[in-house]
Description:
The structure holds two protein chains of two kinds. Chain A is 45% helix and 28% strand. By secondary structure, chain A is α+β, with helices and mostly antiparallel strands. Chain A has four domains: 12-154, PH-domain like; 180-247; 252-346 and 404-484, no CATH class; 349-402. Chain B is of the alpha+beta class. Chain A binds chain B through residues 155, 157, 277, 303, 432-443, 446, 456-459, 462-464, 480, 483-484, 486, and chain B through 84-85, 92-101, 104, 128-131, 133, 160-161.
Amino acid sequence: MTSDPxxxxxxxxxxxxxxxxxxxxxxxxxxxxxxxxxxxxxSILGLIAVVVLILINDLLKYFMFSYQFMDDEILVRSGVxxxxxxxxxxxxxxxITANQWFFLKPFKLEELEIETAGHSEGPEVSLAAVxxxxxxELNQYRKKxxxxxxxxxxxxxxxxxxxxxxxxxxxxxxRELLKFSLTSPAFLSGLLVVLAxxxxxxxxxxxxxxxxxxxxxVHLGWLLVAIGLLIVLxxxxxxxxxxxxxxxxxxxxxxxxxxxxxxxxFFKTKRTSISKNRIQAVVIKQTLLRRMLHIxxxxxxxxxxxxxxxxxxxxxxxxxxxTDKLNGFLKEFFPHIPVDRLKLDEANVGTYYxxxxxxxxxxxxxxxxxxxxxxxxxxxxxxxVIIASAIFWLPSAYLNARRARVSIMNDEYVYLQNNQxxxxxxxxxxxxxxxxxxxxxxxxxxxxxxAHIRLSCRSGVGERILKVKYLPQNQIDKVVEWYxxx
Amino acid sequence: MEKVEKLPSSIKTIWRVHAVIEFAVFLVIVxxxxxIKFAVxxxxxxxxxxxxxxxxxxxxxxxxxxxxxVVYLWNFWTYYIDERQVQLHSGYFFRKQVVIPIARVQNVTxxxxxxxxxxxxxxxxxxTAAGQSEIDGIESKQADKxxxxxxxxxxxxxxxx
Lengths: 486, 161
């Protein structure tokens, strides 16, 4: 059974156009700036030419682009001068994402992104505007194909097993969503972006403007300035909260045979399916503030084509969950992880000693370096430096020690827990996904019987190293032995 | 092959040759940068000379230290292969032990540059899905055997991701 080659919905042209305009915007502005003074006519003509060329290009692109479902693969044809035929076998498809903007909903259209295990940047295929039913159709083709496959090829993965065919689903509650967005530090990064932007345009603001603003400030008094800053902060905070609520609006997670399906978003509804054999580890993340509120988020370390940085690469499968519900959730969605068998020892005194010793050394080094620069100006500044460096180094070192754990759960799973500045990360890692194990120990640590461990996993297109430092040697050696056992 | 093995002692010569080459490159760069002194006033040219020669001096000391360092490295660099995993050990003061299960090995690359060929050695790169580990150089014949062993074992072991 094969379908005929089909074109995208004509609305796709709008998306093509939007994308091209976006990428041509900056060159176009530069061009206009350069030419406008010399000849208005030419700059306007040039702009029109660019727009027309883009339109023609998009039109051609639209008519040359077609997709077709075959028995065992998807065929995507594209290209105006260079013809490209992309074959994607169903069993190589790993993640499918459907994005639906709210204005496409009445037309029953959405964007489909199909990812394979290849090392290409971004999704292998992106279908800009196709009918909503297409995803189900695609899934049917895949299912039919895999049912043929299963009989021939019996493979067992840690995360995808026959006994794990039970369905499960979970929806976020409003309470959780609010807690999540109110405690997110995302607004700080938004502020940083604005500050960086300000730094860039700073040069173009003339001194007179500064002078005028400074005079104004003097009139207003510092109190008002402080209030003004506070209001700016507050606005940023509220905007970031609203953005987060819109992004994770109605978050819904579903487990089905071999995949996880997530659906979320208010303006842009995103539906992602992740095949389970891409999952490398399950991470539970908890920032300090959220720890106080007893909530945490669950993420997956997966193999994907994403080029984003390390922490963003992890897929959030549960933006927020109350800590008491955590075990229940894990049991339901990851029945293979023996959460009940997790036994953690108390943090070792030696771990505290080493972490705090290092922190004090680093803090003293900072004191000396900065101290040499400031001690002439005032003794108070020196004191401030000492206190600031202590605040910078000591609490995170204390948390490092307090949270450093590694523990074997059963033959398949190891539990690893560490600290990242102030947020706590707990990893459930199956033996299968650990690519290599690295045990480190200095001769002085070996006398005291302490060691470090690093587990290397795949993540995104690269490597992720999970490490814990300064743990008792017998715990580390147990993990090494566990890992060596087949 | 089931015992802890050291790298052949001729690898020490190779490491030393590498150190000498690095020093030569460093020397050329420093001397080239030293040409700037003809562009500065004569009065501070002296200081310039002192700085240049002290940098070269430090480089020379590092070169001599690395000649002895090579012995330390070689003494504590061992590897071990059995039917389940490859293990690499290095260091005495800072000990590092890497365990790579054969089932996780994606491919094995053998490399040989002119210096390694001169001593009839090969570099073995063991690639996993996440990264790679290297054995700096072992005898050619042994390297081929090692490659065969690892690949045979890797094919037997189930390799899913």
